[in-house]
Amino acid sequence: MTRRLAQTSVVSATVAAALVLAACGASAPDTAGRSATDAAGTAVPATAALDPCPGSRPSSQARGDGLPDVRLPCLGEGPDVRMAGLAGTPRLVNVWASWCPPCRTELPWLQAVYLDGVDVLGVDAEDQPDSAAGLLDALAVTFPSVSDPSNEFARAIGIPAKPTTLFVSEDGEIVHVQVGPFASEADVRRQVARYLGVGTP
Questions:
Q1: What is the rounded distance in angstroms from the CA atom of residue 36 to the CA atom of residue 105?
Q2: Model confidence over 144-160: pLDDT tens digits?
Q3: Which residues of the chain have a pLDDT value below 50?
Q4: What is the pLDDT of residues 43-72, one digit of tens each?
Q5: What pLDDT is recorded for position 121?
Q6: β 91-96/119-125 pair status
Q7: How many CB atoms are located within 10 Å of the residue 135 CB?
C-alpha cells in the first residue's frame, strides 16, 4: 500500500491479508475498459437507473489524508466528480468491478445502507461501463457510481484489491479502509456506525 492508505487504515496486517485473499486482484480481464459496440461498430453508451453523481468542489485543496485529486465521469447521470472535492457529508467510497464476484455480493448491502440514508459513491474500476451498468440494473442498485476504466483512482491511493471501501468523514478525511469484502450487510452497518458515526436501522 502507499503511505496514504497506510496512514489511514486500521485493519491489522493479518486481517488485511485474509481479506485480500477473499478479494479480486488488481488486474482486470483483457476486455476491461472497452465499451460495447452495435452492429455498425459504434460505441454504445452505458445506461443505468442510478441517482445522479454528487457535486464536488472544483477548487478545494486536496487533503493529504483524503481522497486523491482525480476527476472521474459519472457512470449514470450527473457531472464528472472531482474526488478530492467531495466533502460536507460522511460517505462510503466503494471501489468495485462487475467482473469481481465479492463486489457483486456486497453491492446489495451497500444499496441497503444507501436507502437508509448513508451516502455511498461507487468507483467502477478496470471495467466495461456497459457491463457495470447492466449489473447495477440487475441488482436494482441506485447509488451513484463513477467510471474509472484505467484504474487511475485506485493507483493514486494505493488500493490493492477489489472491493475496497473507504470511509470518508464529513470534512474529507479517510478515517477507515475496508480492504476486501464486507462479511454481511450487518457488518457494513456496524462499521458505518463505528467509523462515520451514522446510525442505520
A1: 24
A2: 999 999 999 999 999 88
A3: 1-3, 6-20, 30-47
A4: 334 445 899 999 998 878 888 999 999 999
A5: 98
A6: parallel
A7: 20
Question: Cell 478515517 appears where?
Answer: 175
User: Among residues 34, 58, 62, which one has the least CA distance to residue 46?
Assistant: 34
Query: 54 and 81 in contact (C-beta within 8 Å)?
Result: yes
24's CB contacts (< 8 A; 6+ apart) are 97, 99, 100, 101, 102, 103, 161, 162, 163
> Tell me, what's the pLDDT at 86?
93
Measured distance CA(12)–CA(190) in Å, rounded: 18
What are the φ and ψ backbone dihedral angles of 55, each rounded to 5 degrees?
-70, 155
pLDDT of residue 28: 57
Peptide bond into 163 cis (omega under 30): yes
Reading the block at residue 81, the C-alpha cell is 466528480
What is the distance between the alpha carbons of residues 182 and 188, in angstroms, rounded to a whole number? 6
CA distance linking residue 17 with residue 11, whole number of Å: 9
Residue type, 84: A
Q: Which residues contact 125 (CB under 8 A, 6 or more apart)?
A: 28, 95, 96, 97, 148, 149, 151, 153, 154, 162
Q: Residues for the chain: how many in total?
A: 201
Residue given cell 468523514 in the structure block: 169
Question: What pLDDT, on a 0 to 100 scale, did the predictor assign at position 168?
Answer: 97
Residue 27 burial (10 A CB sphere; 0-12, 13-18, 19+): exposed
